[in-house]
Amino acid sequence: MNKLIKFGLLSALAISTVSCGDDFLEKPALEGSASLTSAQLEQASNIDPEVTGALMGGVYTLTFTFGSGGTSGHDDFGQKAYDIFGDMLSSDMALSTSTYGWYRASITEYQAPLDFTFGDNRQVWRHYFRIVRGCNEVIDGLGGTDVVPESAANKAIMGQAKALRAHSYFYLAQYFQKEYDGAEEILPIYRSATDLNGPKVAASEIYDLMEQDLTEAISYLDGYSRSNKTEINKQVAQGIYAYVLGARGTDYTKAYNMAKAAMTGYTLMSSSEITGGFTNVNTPGWMWGVDLNDEIGLGLVSWWGQMDYFAYSYPAFGDAKSMDQNLYDAIPANDFRKDQFVDNPGAYTHLMPLNKFYNAARTRYGVTRIVQDDYVYMRVAEMHLLAAEYAAFSGNDAQARTELKAIVSQRVPDASYIDGLSGQQLKNEIHLQTRIELWGEGKSYLALKRNKASVTRGSNHLSFVGTTIPYNDERMTFEIPEGEIQFNPFISTQNN
Do the domain assignments include residue 460? Predict the structure, then answer.
């Protein structure tokens, strides 16, 4: 049984602990006598590490819980919700048919990033700060952010909490800053659950916290063997760190080494696996994900409910998410990944990922409303592509070609064309391969910003067809939400 389910009551307690009202950094009181102080948690964790482990399990559930962004919207279901936001903002994912309206105005027409009163700004902000607060509750319960736990079990929990806190700050920094500028004040920083309503601090301070958290997490998780892939292990922490370093863009050699280290123990998905549905968290190429089951009970309001044509889902009933036509056209005919998409011009299913993300029953409208197919958060393919990218940005074209060929040779019959690439041409190819390999997995937005690139929308979008949008366009970055400006006395202006 999934560890998150086994912990039951304590996981529920963790979710209650990090729930929030209108001021989503306000510390809420738990019902009855269930409330635990940080001192009590610390004492309990010393006696039984499973107490804090269960609380950490509760924080993990926020990454896939309906409403974790504080709304009842069908686009509010945790990390995978914001993977869709990013893929649509980057234009690699086209909303090619819209019947129910999810994502259309606020995301694909860029209304939310231009208006701080739109709820999507608050939803993104609230989701990640809710996780930050949950991680801080766990960290406080282990003695505080500067304490090194004595037991191996508590070290592993502290490592997970710090890595997930860094992960949340990473996405906040990506979504609320146009590009890395260390001096720009962008977000509040909270190191403890007792820290409330802080001012914006410089991006360099946010990134320094991420780096410190991840350095400590990697140390604490050394030798830790997780019970399921929902938990962060050492390699996942190294993978998050590789993303952070790449976004900061000040040490590509260290970023390369971190991506290489993160590959340990994983193999690339095969040509058959990449058209096998992406449903099993135990796939060797998956580094981090969630084993969904009946007890977790996700249904329509989920990533699968927004993406899988073969489910009880929005794509089945009229909201098509498709690969951008220009991106599809850039995939060679002999590339196995081209088979992931249906090329049927004029049809509703044109360029939908019917052969990448799908329930095994392959029955339109779905045979069940309970999601049992799993979520993927991180794959080892990402690390190969990041290593190639960082080697190229370090000026080591030979190494970049080697890293890129390691993955492309698994996708096309002959990858020797890469041997003739160098400089910007090589960087462009790495970026293209990243967009193709990781389509629909929430990584296109991150890659667009790292590469300081622009994207031109293809013909199958419902808006801005043919428009070229650069990575640092005003439309690509969310605004600090209206509610934060109203309730946090230290923030009176938006982020731009």
Answer: yes
